[in-house]
Amino acid sequence: MTTTLGALEERARTRNGEFGEDALIVCDSLVRIYQSEGIEVQALQGLDLLVERGELVAIVGASGSGKSTLLSVLSGLDAPTAGRVRVGPWDLMAMSPRQRVDYRRRMVGFVWQQTARNLVPYLTSAENVTLPLALAGVGRAERTRRAKDLLDVLGVGYCADRRPGAMSGGEQQRVAIAVGLANEPQVLFADEPTGELDTATSHDVLEGLRTANRELGTTVVVVTHDSGVSEHVQRTVAIRDGRTSSEVVRRTHTREDGSEHVVAEEFAVLDRAGRVQLPREYRDALALVGRVRLALEESHVSVWPSGRPEPAPDPGPDTKHGRHREQP
Ligand SMILES: Nc1ncnc2c1ncn2[C@@H]1O[C@H](COP(=O)(O)OP(=O)(O)OP(=O)(O)O)[C@@H](O)[C@H]1O
After folding, report:
1. What is the pLDDT of residues 100-158, one digit of tens each?
2. What whole-number distance in Å separates Cα of residue 33 and Cα of residue 66?
3. Which parts of the sequence are annotated with region: Disordered (predicted)?
4. Which domain holds residue 59?
5. Which of the listed residues 13, 64, 82, 205 has the most CB atoms within 10 Å of its CB?
6. Site to substitute for ligand 1 among 69, 71, 114, 221, most atoms within 8 A of C-beta
């Protein structure tokens, strides 16, 4: 049968939009391969991630899972080997060096783990916040006003005239958030902002990020080892072996009596190629290695170890994969 023009037009009309077209941040099948002394390291292995405007998202994962590589790509410091990455209107794969500077100056802000990387040691907090504003050509009165407002919002207004050496690690990181927000970026990236802090101080810094998100509407992406982070964010995305593997989404529910409680729900992530990572505990518990049997049931998909006897047939649709069938 030949395909008619009408059928092609109909298909074009009904085709799904571009992956993540409404999202603020789109990572589509991102690959980053490093060559080091003749050895190839695949830091990102087809990572998909969407972040909506106004979200506060944490990215967690074991050491070496690819978190910092992802943040380097998103911040425009590094280019992926393959895939597609877009932040707002910026296609990060197709930026000129000039556009890259513009992107880093206007679209995004940063908070790094090392306080020394965030703040100039011989400037006061207020001067640290006004520095990026001066570079962007903002007038003196406006710079002073904005620095004061930001330091106040982040609860470190009392540190305005102190240099970093006269502040605690937590205070320095909250000032660093103010510096990152100075030019009103649409997205704030934070890489292990609590990595050098104790639990109580980490709490204040994570709350600072939440304040930036809630009160200023900035989209925040924070990369961290800190297992306590999920209490401070709406969504926690776990990366394993260079891919998004699971997500925890926190929702606030209102009971009948009007009181509120937070429910955290964990999801596995099914990527665009149909891959899903089974948690290690599940694989270990059922000795799932190599080949597995899959079966499409009416409302779910089942996974069995391949060595086990064939599962009893289910009354659902007859679409079984990896199942032995009698040849005629
Ligand atoms: N410049 C590089 N050259 C070679 N390999 C690299 C480079 N940067 C990272 N890698 C490798 O890529 C993988 C991912 O590293 P990445 O730093 O992104 O992980 P991470 O999750 O941020 O780890 P950590 O939490 O320890 O910072 C690791 O195996 C790492 O050794």
Report:
1. 988 988 899 999 888 788 899 999 999 999 999 998 888 999 999 999 999 999 999 99
2. 11
3. 299-328
4. 51-82+89-268
5. 205
6. 69
